[in-house]
């Protein structure tokens, strides 16, 4: 439980930082080009966004901790890449199919999901082991 809790915290913080860099810096001009689609900064629900990110981190880590065997850095990376590709295709390309977003945003979302999940996979692979210490569950 301790390893999984540490992994959740690490994944959550990493995702928050990467989200800021990707959405707030790298894709900022693309969001400005389609400003009519988004809430204004004053209307954004950042508390809700952080809650959603926390729940997503809990789910990501829980699946790895409870269902993935064996546990290792390589397996964590593979898990992250697979979940990132699925989420990225859904968010990036799936959104592009139904929303008037630019191809830059669609590709950015796909790349972001893939990268963030790969990093999260490396984190869980390095933090959550198959052999918990002191009899604690993984």
Supply Rg.
16 Å
- Detail the poorly predicted runs: 133-138
β-strand number: 0
Structural class: mainly alpha
On the 0 to 100 scale, the average pLDDT is: 93
How much helix, percentage-wise, in residues? over 70%
Strand content: under 5%
Distance between the termini: 6 Å
Number of domains: 1
Topology:
Blueprint: H1 2-26, H2 28-33, H3 46-67, H4 73-98, H5 103-127
Detailed description of the structure:
- The protein has 138 residues and is mainly α.
- It has one domain (2-133).
- Helices cover 75% and strands 0% of the residues.
- Helix 4 (73-98) packs antiparallel against helix 5.
- Residues 133-138 have low confidence and may be disordered.
Keywords for this structure?
0% strand, disordered C terminus, elongated, 138 residues, single chain, mainly alpha
What does this entry show, briefly?
The chain is mostly helical and 138 residues long. The protein is 75% helix and 0% strand.
């Amino acid at each position: 439980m301790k390893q999984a809790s540490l992994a959740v915290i690490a994944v959550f913080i990493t995702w928050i930082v990467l989200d800021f860099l990707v959405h707030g810096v790298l894709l900022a001009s693309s969001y400005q080009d389609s400003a009519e689609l988004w809430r204004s900064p004053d209307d954004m629900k950042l508390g809700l966004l952080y809650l959603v990110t926390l729940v997503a981190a809990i789910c990501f880590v829980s699946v790895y901790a409870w269902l993935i065997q064996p546990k290792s850095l390589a397996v964590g990376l593979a898990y992250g890449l697979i979940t990132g590709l699925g989420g990225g295709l859904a968010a990036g390309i799936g959104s592009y199919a139904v929303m008037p977003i630019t191809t830059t945003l669609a590709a950015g979302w796909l790349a972001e999901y893939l990268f963030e999940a790969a990093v999260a996979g490396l984190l869980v692979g390095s933090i959550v082991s198959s052999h918990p210490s002191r009899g604690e569950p993984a």
